Amino acid sequence: MHILGSGKITITASLERKEYIPGEVIPVEVLIVNDANVPVEPRVTLYQQQLFACNQVHRTLESCLTSEPYSTTEAVPPNSSATALIKVPLATNLVVSLRSPLITVKYFVRVCLDLPHAMDLVVNVPFIVTTRRARAASAAVNNGAVTVVQHPQPQQHHPNHPTSPHHHHQQPQPHPLNRPIETVGIVPPPAPYHSVSCQQQQPPTAPARNNRINNL
After folding, report:
1. Where are the beta strands (DSSP E) in the chain?
2. pLDDT at 191
3. What fold is seen in the domain 7-145+180-201?
4. Closest Cα to residue 33, out of 79, 71, 73?
5. What would the mean pLDDT of 21-30 be, rounded to a whole number?
6. Predicted pLDDT at 70
7. Given a cut of 50, is residue 3 above it in pLDDT?
8. 87: Cβ–Cβ under 8 A, 6 or more apart, which residues?
9. What is the DSSP letter of 125?
10. Mean pLDDT for the chain overall
11. Measured between alpha carbons, how far is 12 from 1 in angstroms, rounded to an integer?
12. For residues 16 and 125, what is the distance between their CA atoms, to the nearest angstrom?
């Protein structure tokens, strides 16, 4: 039996890039610095988060997309550090990441360390699910092959109102339901690694007592 004593465990999770296409495999790089006296093993799961908004009512639905967590073949021994590459496949029928006034769809990879006699250490790394066309357009914009030009909207004047420079015509605001859905497909070039790290200090615990059984 291992008794978790004083020590510190640090975990860092990173992705190769920020956007992925359904059906691809996400390589998750996990760095673990184990300064405690128990072996730890990382577990990786995939989550989808949906946010619904209607007036002042908000609801969040979080669902796990993997039946079983992905893990390494060997645990990290005490007082050591190790780097593991865990591959998580994406389903081919995933909905792309999107953001609108009514619904938002997000994805993230959750890396968890199951610590005995302590709270689990959890790291969430977000990413974007996009399409091949959006990725190609994003690459063309980033490489300078395509230039995005924004043209100013022409001002519309009512025929019954004067067009003097001192007259300001207020354009009607579109209804929130008529706003176009913003698909998160074209993204700026991310950093070489998209990483999130955290650490947890383990408090010292008293050693286990030996119970003596006297036979009468």
Report:
1. 7-15, 19-20, 25-34, 42-54, 57-64, 70-71, 80-89, 98-99, 103-113, 121-129, 182-183, 194-202
2. 45
3. Immunoglobulin-like (2.60.40)
4. 79
5. 95
6. 94
7. no
8. 25, 26, 27, 28, 70
9. E
10. 76
11. 28
12. 11
What are residue 162's DSSP bridge partners?
none
Tell me the domain boundaries of the chain.
7-145+180-201
What is the DSSP track for 64-117? Answer: E--SS-EE-SSPBPTTEEEEEEEEEEPPTTPPPPEE-SSEEEEEEEEEEE--TT
d(C-alpha 63, C-alpha 107), whole Å:
10
Q: Are 200 and 40 in contact (CB under 8 A)?
A: no
How does pLDDT run across 107-161, given as a tens digit for each residue?
A: 999 999 888 777 888 999 999 999 988 888 877 877 765 555 555 666 655 555 5
CA dist 29 and 25 (Å) reads: 13
Which residue's structure tokens are 């955290």? 198
Q: Which amino acid is at 155?
A: Q
User: CB of 5 within 8 A of CB of 208?
Assistant: no
What is this structure's pTM?
Answer: 0.65
Burial of 130 (0-12, 13-18, 19+ CB in 10 A): buried
Using CA atoms, how far residue 108 sits from 93, 105, 143, 195, in Å, is: 16, 11, 27, 12
Which pair of tokens denotes residue 25? 């495999």
Give the three-class secondary structure for 136: helix
Amino acid type, 105: V
